[in-house]
Amino acid sequence: MVRRCEKFYQKPTGWMDEQHIEHDPVCQAFPAQLRELMEIYSDLDEMRRIELLNQARRLIS
If exposure means fewest CB atoms within 10 Å of the residue's CB, which of 1, 6, 20, 41 is most exposed? Predict the structure, then answer.
C-alpha cells in the first residue's frame, strides 16, 4: 500500500520510509535556510543526493 501511495504522489520508492524534516519538531529549531536545504535533500533520489553532496564539497574546498 505504501508503494502505491508513493507512486500516486509521484514520490521516489522509499520516500514514505524516511523522516521528513518539514514535520519534525526538532528540525523546526534549525535556521530556515538549513531546513530548506534539508527538504531539498530529502526530496532527491540517491544519485541526486550524491551529486548535491559532491557539489557542496567543491564549494567548501
Answer: 1
Distance CA 4, CA 11 (A): 10
| Residue 12: Cβ within 10 Å count | 14
Residue extents of the structural domains in the chain? 20-61
- What are φ and ψ of residue 23, in 5° steps? -115, 10
Q: Is 37 exposed, middle or buried (0-12, 13-18, 19+ CB in 10 A)?
A: middle
Question: What gap in Å lies between CA 22 and CA 43, rounded to an integer?
Answer: 11
- Tens digit of pLDDT for each residue in 31-51? 989 888 888 888 888 999 999
For 11, phi and psi rounded to 5 degrees?
A: -105, 150
Distance, CA of 3 to CA of 1 (rounded, Å): 5
